[in-house]
Amino acid sequence: MDYEDQLDRALSETPDIEGQSQRFEVPDPEVRQEGNVTVYENFQDTVDALGRVDDHVLKYLRNEVGTSGHIDESGRARLTGEFDAGRIADAIDDYAEEFVLCPECGLPDTRIGREQGVQILVCEACGARSATEKG
After folding, report:
1. Mean pLDDT of all residues belonging to the chain
2. What is the sign, positive or negative, of the torsion defined by CA atoms of 48, 51, 29, 26?
3. CA distances from 92 to 38, 50, 109, 117, 128 (A)
4. Average pLDDT of the residues in 38-47
5. Per-residue pLDDT at 15 exceeds 90
6. In the chain, what are the domains?
7. Selection from 35, 34, 74 nearest residue 54 by Cα
8. Distance CA 31, CA 3 (A)
9. 17 pLDDT band (50/70/90 cuts)?
10. pTM for this predicted structure
11. For site-directed labelling of 14, which of 3, 40, 69, 96 has its Cα 20 to 30 A away?
């Protein structure tokens, strides 16, 4: 196989990056107050869109807004304190940047792994591997 054949084969096996960023959309947080608790109604939809484990997302969210919280039996996140949708959306956007979107190609086709005790983000699309800052 010559260089041109190899290049053609590589290009045919490479995912089409153009326009794929639109397939990654995280729903806007739907929050409401219940006394001194903020209920994140569509937390499970957000977790599903991110493609991550709900405990990992909640831990990050709690750290970012500086509170405690848990996931109730309906899959909603319940955070102690009053937080508006904008603050929660900012934290979720930061989470996506850190733990979902590949820093090399920008695609969400990633998974979280560990190598030599360090948490890394592995991209299934381009093969990039990068350490997460807050892992």
Report:
1. 90
2. negative
3. 15, 9, 17, 25, 23
4. 97
5. no
6. 26-100 (3.30.30.170), 105-135 (no CATH)
7. 74
8. 55
9. low
10. 0.80
11. 96
The label of the residue with tokens 């960023």 reads 21
Name the β-bridge partners of 134.
Answer: none
Q: What is the predicted pLDDT for the residue at 18?
A: 52
- Please say if the pLDDT value at position 132 is more than 90: no
pLDDT recorded at residue 20: 46
CB 47 within 8 A of CB 57: yes
Q: How far apart are CA 64 and CA 22, in angstroms?
A: 26
Nearest of 90, 54, 87 to residue 72 by alpha carbon: 54
Angle between helices 54-65 and 43-50 (to 10 degrees): 110
Positive or negative torsion for Cα 6, 9, 13, 14 = positive
Between helices 85-99 and 43-50, what is the axis angle to 10°?
A: 20
